[in-house]
Amino acid sequence: MKRTVSHRSYLFKQLSKSAEAAAYLNSVSEDNDIGSLMKAVRNVATAQGGIGALAKATKMSRTSLYKILSHSGNPEFFTVKNILAVYGIRIGFLVTPSSR
Fold first, then answer.
1. How many domains, in total, are found in the chain?
2. How far lies 75's CA from each of 2, 9, 56, 84, 93, in Å?
3. 94 lies in a domain?
4. Inter-residue contact 38 to 71 (CB < 8 Å)
5. Long-range contacts made by residues 19-28, C-beta under 8 angstroms, separation at least 24?
6. For residue 53, what are the domain limits?
7. Quick check: is 67 in a domain?
8. Is 81 part of any domain?
9. What pLDDT, in 10s, does the model give residues 8-63?
10. Of 34, 38, 62, 92, which is the most exposed, with the fewest CB atoms less than 10 Å away?
11. Is residue 91 part of a domain?
């Protein structure tokens, strides 16, 4: 009997919860790498029903979503905002401590 769980299946199980998905996206965004962030959003989409379900919810084509959510994707701000809204996640802004 198999006693281990693959990283991918564990990750997707966790990302199926919106609160965990938001924490994951916040963590990835700390790296300031838009490519990694788009891939992370794609992981959330996969975990919460797949790209097909996201396409229906956003009224976008699957092909354009795959391009947007690739490591080389370069979406507009409102596109990302609309995608995240499907999962009950919104983009926020935080004040950083000043360096003075």
1. 1
2. 41, 27, 18, 13, 19
3. no
4. yes
5. 21/47, 21/48, 21/87, 21/89, 22/89, 25/84, 25/89
6. 7-86
7. yes
8. yes
9. 999 999 999 999 999 999 999 999 898 999 999 999 999 999 999 999 999 999 99
10. 92
11. no
